[in-house]
Structure formats: C-alpha cells, structure tokens
Design brief:
The chain is an alpha+beta fold and 303 residues long. It contains five helices and 20 strands. The chain starts with a strand and ends in a 5-residue tail after the last strand.
Length: 303
Amino acid sequence: MSFSGIFSANLRKAVLGGLLVFFLLGTAAFSAIAKDPFPLIVVDKSKNKLFVAEYQNNEIQLKNEMHTTLGKVLGDKQVEKDLKTPEGIYFFTTKHQPPALKPKFGVLGLMVNYPNPVDLKSGKTGYDIMVHATDDPSRLERKLDSEGCIVVNNDQVRAIAGHVRLGLSPILIYDELKNEYLQASFRPSVREAFQRWLGAWAGKDIDTYAAAYAPDFSFGGMNLAAYKQYKKGLTQKYSHIDVRAENVRTYFHPKYDVVTFTQHYASDLKGGGKGFRSTGTKTLYFNKDNQIIVEAYSNLQED
C-alpha cells in the first residue's frame, strides 16, 4: 500500500513517521513509499567486502557479507586494461553462463554497465566488468587478483544472481564505504532538486526545468539550449502533462548521486486527443551542485 502526496507551489514537505510526504505542484505527484524491499549490491573495496543489500524504509540495509577479490591495481578504473575495479553507481545488465562464459569465470557472470553514462562523458574506457565466480578457488585467498572484475565463489555468485533484478538493481562500488551513504536522508538537497525538476516538468515551467540540468548536459545529440527548446515545443503542443513518480530511491556516492524512479507519463494534445503515454524506469545522475548531468530511461519497470 502506498501513500500518494502532491506538491505545493512552494514545494512544501512534511515528515510523518520518518516518511517524506510531498504535496501538489501542477500535475506532478509521487508515492512516498516504494515497493520495498528492493534488491541491490554494495561493494567496499577498502575491505574487499561485497554485501547483498536491500533498499527499505528509506535506507540501504546490508544483509549477507561476502569476501571478494578485486582488480590487481588499486584505484578507480580509468581506461581499458588498467586492471582497476571501477568505483561508482552501476546497474546489472546481463547474465552469462557456460559454455558462452569462459571457464575462468566460474559458473556465472553478471555484467554491469561500465562505462556508465557519467563515465563516458568523462572519457573513461573499458568493457566486460562483471561480478563473477572462478574455476580457481585459490584466487579468492588474494585481495587483488582480477583484471578489474569483482570475484566471489560459485555459490555466492548464484546467490547474488538470485537476488538482483537485471536492468533495475544497482551495484554501488565504493573505495571506502561510509554509513552515511546508506541513508536516504544523507543529502536532502538531492531529493529537493529532484522535486523541483519533477514539478517544473509537469507544470510546464521550462525555465525552472532547464535550470535543473548542468551546463554541459546533452541528450539525443542536443546541447542544453537545444534540449530546452525541444521541451518548450512539447509544452506548446500539449495542453496537459501528467508525470507520476513511484518507487523513488536515492543513491549516494562521492563521485555523483543517482535518483531512480518508476515514471508514469501522460500528455493530452491541444484541441483534444491523447498525446504521448509511457511507463518505465528513469535514472537521473546528479553532480555535487545538485544538477542533472545525465538522464537515462528504460522500458523496464518494477512489478
């Protein structure tokens, strides 16, 4: 059961029982309670630890702990074949098993989306970063022995694969995990920036909407100025825009922050008739100035 709130023009918010509840602005709304628990993975490179985790009650709860072997070279991955394990917020994309998977990767490999959109903007290179097993258990006795991947044993990778949802579950990889990163209340300015962006979009306030993006934002070959004009054209085309956000979750990292949510979008054409309709998962990447640097959309959605 979810509680749906609405934004006010001043984006007022109340805290009831520890839950953020938001009020009406135009036709934007979202549910304050997500479909919890939601599965994810957390990696603390400083301790060679992987945690099977759940997002629940506005925090990330660490459940099962596993030892993991990481890249042979310390530091954040920058380029192909530097033997470093990347640091950031990634998502599981595909599952690979023998015979397509080489024996050295054990019984199963879970690919992540490195380089992600932020990595690509910063010029990072590389590919095939996975959480995988190994056919040589002695490797797991070493802290650093992979080419950049995250290595566990066969039973553990099966447990991880049974826990995560491909295309939806994130893996948060930290140089050093700090407890505050696990709390949704850690940087409230990120959630507030998200609220302003959502309300401006539905309210057809293009100036406020465009101001939510970083100056170097681009989308579909458009720079920010062109993207603003594109969105302005849509506001003139549609008489009404309704945006509903559910399952809003915030993930924090020293490099950037991420907000994911189930987006329900509907518009009506001026003069009558239905406009565009869609439901899927949107991912917003925020810089430390609380500006959107990248946005991504997938037709995948939570059940």
